[in-house]
């Protein structure tokens, strides 16, 4: 079975002390993960080392950076390089998040460069893709997402792709009042897997974990994760509430 993953994205939330308390509250539940399950915490840069020290003793728990630079090093004040993250033993990094694309104008080329740097350093990208409301309303979401995959990800080898986690974000269903149904989530996940199969073959497609990133909550996680092509979630707001995120972890297949 593919890895089933509950990935928290704290975004720009929590103070250092609040972050420590949230992790403590989650770990105090003594969650036992199966071999095919992983829990990943996407932590703000200042807290990465603290969080990594706490998860290092736990089976199948990891820390992710929320972003990285598309430059290897140099005069890029305020940026954080892949080598910096590697040097503090961070295993995962979220890239291409819809907020990075929308608010910081990150292009498919920028994200492609991040993919290469992360894989070159032996780190695992959590590659985000997904369409805005205008694209969904036009009915061209498949073409839009496939272009993101083609321009940012599908240049890597089949072996490299097996070290990538894909997260599908229906941007139109986040903060718009519209809601993505379970069937819509499964439909797009199945399309993404078919696009991988077309490019790399079915064996590779069956090995890649695809997470759902559209307002996953404790109340809908089990239904979403039961979909055959949904391998867990990239969780925003609900990951900031210990009892909710614990329920989401328990909902994994």
TrEMBL record:
It holds the Pfam family TIM. The active site is at residues 97, 169. The keyword Isomerase applies. Coiled coil: none annotated. Keywords: Cytoplasm, Gluconeogenesis, Glycolysis, Isomerase. GO terms for molecular function: triose-phosphate isomerase activity. Its EC number is 5.3.1.1. Pathway: Carbohydrate degradation; glycolysis; D-glyceraldehyde 3-phosphate from glycerone phosphate: step 1/1; Carbohydrate biosynthesis; gluconeogenesis. GO terms for biological process: gluconeogenesis; glyceraldehyde-3-phosphate biosynthetic process; glycerol catabolic process; glycolytic process. Belongs to the triosephosphate isomerase family. This is Triosephosphate isomerase. It comes from Niabella ginsenosidivorans. The gene is tpiA.
């Amino acid at each position: 079975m593919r890895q089933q993953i509950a990935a928290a994205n704290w975004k720009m939330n929590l103070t250092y002390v609040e972050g420590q308390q949230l992790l403590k509250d989650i770990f105090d539940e003594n969650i036992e993960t199966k071999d095919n399950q992983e829990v990943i915490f996407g932590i703000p840069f200042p807290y990465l080392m603290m969080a990594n020290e706490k998860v290092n003793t736990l089976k199948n728990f990891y820390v992710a950076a929320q972003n990285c630079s598309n430059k290897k090093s140099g005069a890029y004040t305020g940026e954080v390089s892949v080598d910096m993250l590697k040097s503090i033993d961070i295993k995962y990094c979220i890239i291409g998040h819809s907020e990075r694309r929308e608010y910081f104008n990150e292009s498919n080329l920028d994200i492609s460069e991040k993919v290469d740097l992360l894989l070159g350093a032996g780190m695992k990208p959590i590659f985000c893709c997904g369409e805005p409301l205008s694209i969904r309303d036009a009915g061209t979401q498949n073409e839009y997402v496939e272009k993101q995959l083609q321009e940012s990800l599908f240049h890597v080898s089949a072996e490299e792709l097996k070290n990538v986690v894909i997260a599908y974000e229906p941007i139109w269903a986040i903060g718009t009042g519209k809601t993505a149904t379970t069937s819509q989530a499964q439909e797009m996940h199945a399309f993404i897997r078919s696009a991988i199969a077309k490019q790399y073959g079915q064996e590779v497609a069956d090995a890649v974990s695809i997470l759902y990133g559209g307002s996953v909550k404790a109340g809908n996680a089990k239904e979403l994760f039961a979909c055959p092509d949904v391998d867990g979630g990239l969780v925003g707001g609900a990951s900031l509430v210990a009892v909710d995120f614990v329920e989401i972890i328990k909902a994994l297949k």
